């Protein structure tokens, strides 16, 4: 799995006023869960750019005042109006404990249905998987080589390695739908 480095600093004071001041100084208040104690820290907002505003999944190499942690981004909160990051939660990775994570879906192959004039519709951009940290995939591959018009590729059709899908197995990931032009051509043939 790809990794990204974030450098943080311990928070001396907790509370609304201190969090607000951190945000005004372009920092993000954060918490690291999963260890013996929670670690409250803050990190510069620009370090989150590659972690948050990308479709990829990353393992985070977190350094808080010299102490290193291997973790994943568990949850993030945004301001409802200006999309500024308000708060981030990280989860400590332990080699013997499974974690749940959203992983991007990467579409591969060429669909015969699209070649015939159908429209490829991506229903899910990410799927939720559960695995040991060493088995977390960078992405899940969705092969559409056999997808005809009107058919869908479902979670149950995806190949899983050393991980388990947590989404409903009947949920469509990608489908090929009939276009308006194709429907019009079919109606013309009937006349």
List keywords for this structure.
191 residues, mainly beta, Ribosomal Protein L25, Chain P, RNA Polymerase Alpha Subunit, Chain A, domain 2, 2 domains, 6-stranded mixed beta barrel, 4-stranded mixed sheet, 4 helices, 13 strands, elongated, rRNA-binding, Ribosomal_bL25/Gln-tRNA_synth, 5S rRNA binding, Ribosomal_bL25_long, RNA-binding
Characterise this structure.
15% of the residues lie in helices and 43% in strands. The strands form 3 sheets. Strands 1-3-2-6-5-4 form a 6-stranded mixed β-barrel. Strands 10-7-9-12 form a 4-stranded mixed beta sheet, with no helix packed on it. The chain has a 3-stranded antiparallel beta sheet with strand order 8-13-11, with no helix packed on it. It starts with a strand and ends with a helix. The longest helix is centred in the last third of the chain and has 11 residues, at 180-190. With 191 residues, it is mainly β.
